UniProtKB/TrEMBL annotation:
It catalyses: L-aspartate + 2-oxoglutarate = oxaloacetate + L-glutamate. Homodimer. Keywords: Aminotransferase, Pyridoxal phosphate, Transferase. It comes from Rhynchospora pubera. InterPro entries: Aminotransferase_I/II_large, Asp_trans, PyrdxlP-dep_Trfase, PyrdxlP-dep_Trfase_major, PyrdxlP-dep_Trfase_small. GO terms for molecular function: L-aspartate:2-oxoglutarate aminotransferase activity; pyridoxal phosphate binding. SUPFAM superfamilies: PLP-dependent transferases (SSF53383). Residues 86-453 form the Aminotransferase class I/classII large domain. Belongs to the class-I pyridoxal-phosphate-dependent aminotransferase family. Coiled coil: none annotated. GO terms for biological process: amino acid metabolic process. This is aspartate transaminase. Gene3D superfamilies: Aspartate Aminotransferase, domain 1, Type I PLP-dependent aspartate aminotransferase-like (Major domain).
């Protein structure tokens, strides 16, 4: 008789499969029983081997630490878990209707209907993505008659929305400009740092936001860009800077271009809000077009999450405007080479939606009208919030900076504890840097939000 520290029935590998390993050990330790080894020592050894294997397999990942929740997407998780009726999700930049419901654009529904009627197949796309999409996206960004397009100097590769496009460009920088640094604004969209960290690209910050004026620290920005090693990549938000909502003026953009030229830096634009900031696609592309016009080689990551509401379709692009068509061809070939082992080729659905909307004059003008409407709703909410704050706050504080900010967000100036008070006391879910997404706010809720902001600002240090 052999005494084994497990039950021959319940501790069988099949029975254990799918159970948490800790439970398996519990069984192994407490369920001691006798198993007959008569007839076959081998059988008994097998059981022992299995038991040892089970015990050893606590987990090879036991030392993996819990990752912190994402500072932006984690806010939505916390919001979903909250049961308070007044709760508001002003964390992630996702457009909501006045009833605070997600919005699918009518042009998207129409394009999808067209796509269904065409009955297109689901074959793999080429690595660089859907040709009609790539053409449309570069034209939207630069203008169809832009010289860089006419002379085939633009390398466009469809990406996994803005994030995936930024990540692909970061991988390119890591491989082909390994000693270059990327300069990012302080503050910036939090994921920029993760993207460059994971791609192994060194980065540092340039001054951008001045808390004293709640405006742009233009002098600081220029000084830091000047001080960066020549040939750095300077990450710029094409429009509607996230999180501050503060953009340089056209004159300031020109000065920024002068400094980049002087230092031999390469501009790298993140364009996540084209058309969403001002309501006009062309106006919001001003900064990018200025740099292209001036003859820079430019990186531009684009996203259709916000302007077409295609958040979960993961549709965007990376464009590299090069000095010759030969360089553009080679750059594109290397972007494809980087994409292939990462995700092979991009998804087709969102690309077809964009291509159909942009390619059809009626849908295109309908899209522009819908975009204006969305941008307009956000502007109305911004104004109402400002009105409520200035009427209710008797301290004399000037809230007019809210009106000067543009895009989806308002950077309220609330610090971490004040932002936490917004959530803990008022059930207003927002990022800890004091950013609120006005796209998730309704006119009806401005009054409540103003009370929450005034309380948090004046009563919490
Ligand atoms: N670049 C900037 C400046 C962004 O604000 C965002 C999205 C992206 C890129 C990436 O968007 P995409 O991958 O969906 O195209 N920022 C959001 C969402 C709206 C997020 O954090 O992912 C935000 O709440 O800041």
């Amino acid at each position: 008789m052999a005494s084994l520290a497990f039950s021959s029935t319940s501790a069988s590998p099949v029975a254990l499969r799918g159970r948490p390993n800790k439970l398996a050990i519990g069984v192994a330790q407490s369920g001691a029983c006798h198993v007959s080894a008569r007839g076959s020592d081998r059988k008994a050894r097998l059981f022992i081997t299995r038991a040892v294997a089970v015990e050893k397999k606590v987990s090879r990942f036991e030392d993996v630490a819990m990752a912190p929740p994402d500072p932006i997407l984690g806010v939505s998780e916390a919001f979903r878990a909250c049961t308070n009726e007044s709760k508001l999700n002003l964390g992630v930049g996702a457009y909501r209707t006045e009833d605070l419901q997600p919005y699918v654009l009518n042009v998207v529904k129409k394009a999808e209907k067209l796509m269904l009627e065409k009955g297109e197949n689901k074959e793999y796309l080429p690595i660089e993505g859907l040709a009609a999409f790539n053409k449309a996206t570069a034209e939207l960004l630069l203008g169809a008659d832009n010289h860089s397009i006419q002379s085939q100097r633009v390398a466009t590769v469809q990406g996994l929305s803005g994030t995936g496009s930024l990540r692909l460009a970061a991988a390119f920088i890591n491989r082909y400009c390994p000693n270059s640094k990327v300069l990012i604004s302080s503050p910036t969209w939090g994921n920029h740092k993760n993207i460059f960290n994971d791609a192994g690209v060194p980065w540092s910050e340039y001054r951008y936001y001045d808390p004293k004026t709640v405006g742009l620290d233009f002098e600081g920005m220029i000084a830091d860009i000047k001080a960066a090693p020549s040939g750095s990549f300077i990450l710029l938000h094409g429009c509607a800077h996230n999180p501050t909502g503060i953009d340089p003026t056209p004159e300031q953009w020109t000065k920024i271009a002068d400094v980049l030229e002087e230092k031999g830096h390469t501009p790298f634009f993140d364009v996540a809000y084209q058309g969403f900031a001002s309501g006009s696609l062309d106006e919001d592309a001003f900064s990018v077009r200025l740099f292209v016009e001036r003859g820079f080689e430019v990186f531009v990551a684009q996203s259709y999450s916000k302007n077409l509401g295609l958040y979960s379709e993961r549709i965007g692009a990376i464009n590299v405007i090069c000095s010759s068509s030969g360089v553009a061809n080679r750059v594109k070939s290397q972007l494809k080479r980087l994409a292939r082992p990462m995700y092979s080729n991009p998804p087709v659905h969102g690309a077809r939606i964009v291509a159909n909307v942009v390619g059809d004059p009626n849908l295109f003008s309908e899209w522009k009208a819908e975009m204006e409407e969305m941008a307009g709703r956000i502007k109305n909410v911004r104004k109402r919030l400002y009105d409520n704050l200035s009427q209710k706050d008797k301290s004399g504080k000037d809230w007019s900076f809210i009106l000067r900010q543009i895009g989806m967000f308002s950077y309220t100036g609330l610090n971490t504890s004040q932002s936490e008070n917004m959530t803990n006391k008022w059930h207003v879910y927002m990022t800890k840097d004091g950013r609120i997404s006005l796209a998730g706010l309704s006119l009806a809720k401005c009054d409540y939000l103003a009370d929450a902001i005034i309380d948090s600002y004046h009563n919490v240090n």
